[in-house]
Design a protein that fits this description.
By secondary structure, this protein is an alpha+beta fold. It has 2 domains: 2-217, no CATH class; 222-283, no CATH class. It is built from 8 helices and 6 strands. The strands form 2 sheets. The protein has a 4-stranded mixed β-sheet with strand order 5-3-4-6, with helices on one face. It has a two-stranded antiparallel ribbon with strand order 1-2. Helix 2 (8-49) runs antiparallel to helix 3, helix 3 (54-106) runs parallel beside helix 7 and helix 5 (139-156) packs across helix 7 (192-217). The chain is elongated. The model has no long low-confidence stretch (mean pLDDT 90). The structure holds zinc ion. The site of zinc ion has 7 residues, from loops.
């Protein structure tokens, strides 16, 4: 959480990076398990089959095929479907964090959860209309909306498009999109590459959103903390958690250790004031104020 407060872009990119790595690893393990199971069963069948009648032998082979199908189709299917559901919750959590952070920064009187519509629509309206940021509505946003439809089909219709409210939309999407298809029974079939591409799409989307988020930060003001105890004058962005608009982390602390100076409109002005205190000047290493 600390990382999220100071470097939200980095925290988001790390979380998405971990998800990518997780999928790669589990897919590898599944592939290895499938191979092991195949070798074991083949050895066993070869040893046992000779003792069996033709009917018994065919029953054993059927069991063998079922087992293989589990490793090659069923388990990857469960993994990838739940992966997309997890990705969706990461998306929602990240958007919620940005909305809450904008609410604190700009004193927006209502929470994003009070708006109408699904979570994504609410976040879009909140971030663009109330937060004043440029909300990315390009290709990554279009793709993300398709992932949401897929996610809803997985969660509300066990991943089967038949009878799902957006069946036609999903069928159209799957007919054009690589890495996702619908089997003869109506089940969505996701490939590993499709899931990895979904992470990359989210990464692109958040990079764009954070460009806008950080762009707004550059119009922020600055404060200086003159510390009389350890003899330092440190410059912060006013919205740094340590600065808290010149209230610091202990708003009720008395003036025994030091005092806040500011706000200042430019970094230069803040630095001049800091130098004028006569204390050694530094910039906060957490908010890293820039002009
Ligand atoms: Zn700071």
């Amino acid at each position: 959480m600390l990382l999220k407060n100071f470097w939200p872009r980095l925290a988001t990119s790390q979380e998405l990076g971990s998800l990518k790595e997780y999928l790669e690893k589990i897919e590898t393990y599944l592939g290895e398990a499938r191979e092991m199971a195949r070798e074991e069963l083949e050895d066993w069948l070869n040893a046992e089959a000779a003792k069996l009648s033709p009917t018994e032998r065919s029953d054993f082979y059927e069991f063998f095929v079922d087992k293989q199908w589990q490793y090659s189709e069923v388990f990857p299917g469960i993994l990838r479907n739940s992966f997309l559901v997890t990705l969706h919750s990461v998306l929602e959590n990240e958007l919620a964090w940005i909305c809450d952070s904008l609410r604190r920064k700009k004193d927006i009187p209502i929470s994003w959860s009070k708006l109408k519509g699904n979570a994504l629509e609410r976040a879009k309206v909140y971030i663009s209309k109330l937060g004043g940021l440029d909300f990315p509505t390009g290709q990554s946003w279009v793709e993300i909306n398709s992932y949401i439809t897929i996610r809803n089909c997985i969660v509300h219709n066990v991943g089967n498009v038949r009878g799902f409210s957006k069946e036609k939309e999903l069928r159209d999407y799957c007919s054009k999109q690589a890495g996702i298809s619908i089997d003869t029974e109506g089940n969505l079939v996701l490939s590993k590459d499709f899931c990895l591409q979904a992470v990359s799409t989210l990464q692109e989307f958040f990079e764009e959103l954070y460009d806008s988020y950080e762009g707004k930060q550059s119009t922020m003001t600055y404060h200086v903390y003159e510390n009389w105890t350890v003899h330092k004058a440190r410059v912060h962005f006013s919205d740094c958690s340590f600065c808290n608009d010149g209230k610091g982390i202990h708003p009720n602390a008395g003036p025994n250790n030091g005092r806040w100076l500011g706000p200042f409109a430019t970094l230069d002005e803040a630095l001049q004031v800091a130098q004028a205190t006569g204390e050694p000047v530094s910039k906060c290493k957490f908010c890293r104020p820039q002009g």
